[in-house]
Write a structure and sequence with these properties.
Largest sheet of chain B: 7 strands, mixed
Strand content of chain A: under 5%
Oligomer: heterodimer
Helix content of chain A: 55-70%
Largest sheet of chain A: 2 strands, antiparallel
Organism (chain A): Microbulbifer epialgicus
Domain Cytochrome oxidase subunit I profile (chain A): 53-570
Shape of chain A: globular
Distance between the termini of chain A: 73 Å
Strand order of the largest sheet of chain A: 1-2
Order of helices and strands of chain A: HHHHHHHHHHHHHHHHHEHHEH
Structural class of chain B: alpha+beta
Family (chain A): Belongs to the heme-copper respiratory oxidase family.
Structural class of chain A: mainly alpha
Number of strands of chain B: 12
Pfam family, one (chain A): COX1
Number of helices of chain A: 20
Protein name (chain A): Cbb3-type cytochrome c oxidase subunit I
């Protein structure tokens, strides 16, 4: 272990291109192309930033910003970049399975694809997208100026991004793990997989997991301590409730994962025997620890999505959310129950039927609050006035498709049935069925919903709807056939199969994957078209959807201090009440100086040095690991000496901003909802009832 | 109304109906296309499902199939209202042309709450009782009572093939599991490499196999015939080839087969086992070990040491470390023993 040189295990053969030269094949061409894309994209982005001379702005407005809104946006940009990679990997895998038995990929290459696809989609798409949306919207909804710990927020983003970049690096240097996103030992142990692949996985998970734990602490404290005056718990918007539950899950669910990954790291690096075959190692402990995290993780992701849907259903039905207290209670029950079901991921490990029964029933119990939520959303639309905007299309698609996922979930909760369909494509279909319509649709709905608040202009609704439809169609074509193939017994993670019964399913799934690709392209196109037409779609007044909660009561884009005067809350749908009672768009009684957190380079520095630290650890470059670990510690200590961490925005500037905004309000025309997606909508909603 | 003035030129307006039509159609198409494709694919292909629990060859898989359909049907009680009511609500309460009343402050109604919590709860209650009964009656560890004593089979998961040891008959096979019909089969399983999952879908559910540990699986076949078993847990590049044929034979045929194995099998001594335990697929192992009398996919052994299974399991409990060279399933396994030239 010590007998490596200055560059550790690193040499020319570690580069992905050297394998193409020594062994030209389609599989290696695909791998090298992926590597090239990473390198070229990096060069192009750096080049463009230099060309447009935006390094200064980037540094002062974004990279060092402690503003929760900007950090949220950076999280989402990162998630979208990673989603593109994860999605393309999905395409390649679907192509391989559609082409089987004569596929074009090596088994190991295919295994790396499903391992990175899973790791990326969970840890570097779903989590950062959720965290990004929460970061952006939650403080606005509770009437706060920022999250409780703005610099900590930066640090969470930093380690998440550096872990994600590490995964990108693995495309170019070395290879990734072949052990799936769950990385079960002993397969991922040093004996069976001596390469760097599992090490990439271990460090990416340990660091990003730490980031998510810190985020959980940050959000929980923010909700508990930073709510505006009068915002009692039962006056919080539904989204904030789901965020609270999800943050608590982050605090308690992420540590078991970090511990499991670290223990695997100890096994691999220091010859420990936690999960090895010999000397009393026990791989079952890993499965327990991993899923002790893994199951709450699912709810950690889906609860905020439920929150977005609650906002969307209520706003676009122009109606109060039905069964608020029921929904709160259901959310809380789901959060608690999520810790009592982890064993259903391995009913087949040989424990007694009594244990399986307990966990099976606990699993099915979660269906009760989830069902209640679905009915509550239906009742929210009932007696409403439903508008079919992009977020609403996603929400409706979710409602229909998610219950299919719920159905297969209840089926899987039966150990008897799980014994048959565990580890088959039925399971793959199930979790994509809950994660795509459940989580991703929610996030995309939230993206379309809050975009005007973030950037001051609306996204193109027509293209938005198209992308929502394509997502739904693509999802169904891709994943519903997998239920069939799974019932027929096709194991997951099969890079090939001899039984041609599966072929038609795989071909349909491949077509579906192409439709999903079109959906992604439509999202990019939507962004492009909306940017081009931004002047026609500006909503400076700030309320494009006749919103109901506090974030719509301020201009769009939101000012860095959020609220000129911290609001006083009297109702659950505070802004709707304010509009109806004529309290909206009033200047504050007195203008005060506002303190906001200063910019801080710590996040960016940590992003760099933790990235180097992880890379050094993966490649056994010990001196570099030591230096970068010291740099991490020193930069954190040094930054604690920054006493002067607040910046003051003078009252005069706030007054100027507000007066300008109110003038804008005065000269704008309030529009009804029929004109919502026309240039007439400048964010000033007409009262319609 | 004035927004139409801002809209692009007249040509675009004339084509508006096309857009309108396209936009309304996706809602319907999106749900009907996949449904019909799926229906066609599924219905034409279910007939081939010979390796699935949907075409069971024994009572265990049959019960699992029945349970699957019951669970699906019962859950439908909670699911169907969503499928039916969502479109109804969308049509009735849509903003344009909707006919329903508008009650923007309506947010709670006691009886409805009771139904919302009550219906799923009752469904889950019924399902839980079913789950409880089925899970305890189909416990894979429970021996099946038959008119004849069970045939014991010891299963060892290797990279990338399964070794079946019949300790009482003093034979062993790779790549082919033969069981007599109407006779309970009692399996004890372990792994001599990484964790794997053993599944014969048409007969019983799967169970994990792990090194140094044993799990159990019991089933009985009620029809003669042929099916396939496999490993469902990814274990590397030979994973998809880790399948085996399962032949269910009548008693007489089974005895004849046992005699054939005894006559043609090679001795499964330590040396042979170590060659077998290398990272090879069933095919590669076959070409390395099998003789001309054996079938194309199977290797037959006689068993000089009936305690072989025990020694495989107990090797991990010696209290001594097992080096990479001694650990089957690693790339380095057995390298020092054989000539380097034997490696590809």
């Amino acid at each position: 272990m010590i007998d490596y040189g200055w560059l550790g295990k690193l040499n020319w053969d570690s580069l992905v291109f050297s394998k193409l030269i020594s062994n030209p094949s389609v599989s290696e061409v695909v791998a090298s192309t992926a590597g090239c894309i990473v390198i070229i994209a990096t060069i192009v982005i750096l080049g463009l930033l230099t060309w447009f001379r935006v390094w200064g702005t980037l540094w002062s407005e974004w990279l060092t910003s402690t503003d929760h809104k900007r950090i949220g946006i950076m999280y989402i940009v990162f998630a979208l970049v990673m989603m593109t990679r994860g999605l393309l990997e999905g395409m390649v895998m679907r192509a391989q399975q559609a082409a089987a038995p004569d596929g074009f990929l090596y088994a190991d290459h295919f295994a790396q694809l499903f391992s990175t696809h899973g790791t990326i989609m969970i840890f570097f798409v779903a989590v950062p997208f959720v965290v990004g949306l929460v970061n952006f919207a939650m403080p606005l909804q509770i009437g706060a100026r920022d999250v409780a710990f703005p610099v900590l927020n930066q640090i969470s983003l930093a380690v998440t991004v550096s872990s994600g970049v590490l995964l990108m690096v693995s495309l170019v240097v070395g290879e990734f793990s072949t052990g799936g996103w769950t990385a079960y030992p002993p397969y991922t142990g040093g004996d069976f997989n001596p390469g760097v692949g599992p090490d990439y996985w271990v460090w990416a998970i340990v660091f990003s997991g730490a980031g998510t734990t810190l985020t959980g602490i940050n959000f929980t404290v923010t909700i508990l301590k930073c709510r505006a005056a009068g915002m009692k718990f039962f006056r919080m918007p539904m989204f904030c409730w789901t965020v609270l539950c999800s943050s608590i899950l982050m605090i308690f669910a992420m540590p078991p994962l970090s511990v499991a990954a670290l223990m695997l790291g100890f096994d691999r690096y220091l010859d420990f025997h936690f999960f090895t075959n010999d000397l009393g190692g026990n791989m079952m402990n890993y499965a327990n620890l991993f899923w002790l995290f893994g199951h709450p993780e699912v709810y950690l992701l889906v609860l905020p999505a439920y929150g977005v849907f609650s906002e969307v259903f209520s706003t676009f039905s122009a109606k109060r959310l039905y069964g608020y207290k029921s929904l709160v209670f259901a959310t809380m029950s789901i959060a608690v129950l999520s810790f009592t079901v982890w064993l259903h991921h391995f009913f087949t490990m040989g424990q007694s039927p009594t244990i399986n029964i307990v966990f099976g029933i606990a699993t099915m119990l979660i269906a009760v609050p989830t069902g209640v939520k679905v009915y509550d959303w239906m009742a929210t639309m009932y007696r409403g006035r439903i508008r079919f905007t992009t977020p609403m299309i996603y929400a409706i698609g979710f409602l229909i498709l998610f219950v299919i996922g719920g159905l297969s979930g209840v089926i899987l909760a039966n150990p008897t049935v799980d014994f048959q369909v565990h580890n088959t494509l039925f399971l793959v279909a199930h979790f994509h069925n809950v994660l795509i319509p459940g989580v991703l649709f929610g996030l995309l709905a939230g993206y379309n919903y809050w975009f005007p608040k973030a950037f001051g202009f609306r996204l193109n609704d027509r293209l938005g709807r198209w992308s929502a439809f394509l997502w739904m169609l693509g999802f169904m074509l891709t994943f519903l056939p997998l239920y069939g193939a799974g019932l027929l017994g096709m194991p997951r993670r099969s890079f090939s199969y001899m039984d041609l019964t599966f072929k038609p399913y795989m071909v349909v799934a491949f077509i579906g994957a192409m439709v999903i690709l079109c959906a992604l392209i439509t999202i990019v196109l939507q962004l492009y078209v909306s940017l081009r037409d931004r002047d026609k779609n500006r909503v400076p007044v700030g309320d494009p959807w006749d919103g109901r909660s506090l974030e719509w009561s301020i201009p769009a884009p939101a000012p860095s201090y959020n609220f000129a005067e911290l609001p006083r809350v009297t109702d659950r749908d505070e802004f709707t009440e304010a509009k109806e009672q004529g309290r909206a768009y009033q200047p504050p009684k007195i203008y005060r100086d506002i303190e906001v957190p200063k910019n801080n380079p710590l996040g960016f520095i940590l992003c760099l040095v933790t990235g180097i630290l992880m890379f050094a650890l993966v490649w056994y470059i010990w001196w570099l690991a030591l230096v970068s670990a010291l740099a991490v510690i020193i930069s954190v200590i040094v930054s604690t000496y920054r006493w002067d961490s607040e910046r003051v925005i003078p009252a005069s500037q706030v007054r100027g901003d507000v007066e300008k905004w109110l003038k804008q309000v005065k000269k704008s025309r309030a529009i009804g909802r029929d004109l919502e997606n026309t240039p007439a909508n400048v964010g000033y909603a007409k009262l319609e009832h | 109304m004035d927004w139409k003035v801002d809209a692009p030129e007249g040509l675009f307006l004339k084509r508006m109906w096309l857009w309108e039509w396209l936009f309304r159609v996706p809602l319907r198409l999106i749900f009907t296309i996949p449904a019909s494709i799926l229906f066609v694919v599924l219905s034409t292909h279910l007939a081939y499902a010979s390796e699935s629990f949907l075409m069971p060859l024994g009572p265990v898989a049959h019960e699992q199939k029945t349970h699957f359909f019951w669970a699906t049907a019962l859950t439908m009680v909670a699911v169907l209202p969503v499928f039916i009511l969502v479109p109804v609500i969308l049509i009735k309460y849509r903003r344009k042309k909707g006919s329903g009343i508008y009650a923007p402050k309506w947010e709670s109604y006691g009886p409805l709450e009771v139904v919302m919590w009550g219906v799923p709860f009752l469904v889950i209650l019924v399902l839980s009782v079913m789950l409880w009964r089925a899970t305890s009656s189909l416990d894979p560890y429970k021996e099946i009572e038959g008119v004849v004593p069970p045939v014991r089979v010891e299963v060892v998961g290797l990279d990338w093939k399964w070794l079946f040891i019949y300790p009482e008959l003093e034979i062993a096979t790779v790549g082919e599991l033969v069981v007599p019909v109407h006779t309970p089969i009692s399996m004890t399983l372990t792994s001599d490499t990484v964790m794997q999952s053993f599944l014969i879908a048409a007969l019983a559910g799967q169970i994990y196999v792990m090194p140094g540990m044993t799990t159990k699986l019991n089933f009985i076949a009620t029809k003669t015939g042929k099916t396939q078993g496999e490993n469902t847990q990814f274990t590397g590049k030979g994973f998809t080839e880790q399948k085996f044929d399962v032949l269910i034979k009548s008693d007489d045929d089974f005895q004849a087969w046992v005699a054939l194995v005894r006559a043609t099998g090679i001795a499964l001594d330590v040396d042979t086992y170590n060659r077998l335990a290398r990272r090879t697929t069933r095919k590669e192992a076959h070409s390395a070990l099998a003789t001309a009398q054996m079938p194309a996919q199977a290797i037959y052994f006689t068993l000089p040491d009936v305690e072989l299974f025990q020694s495989i399991v107990m090797r991990y409990h010696s209290g001594k470390p097992i080096s990479i060279e001694e650990q089957p399933g690693t790339e380095k396994f057995g390298r020092d023993k054989e000539a380097e030239g034997a490696q590809p």
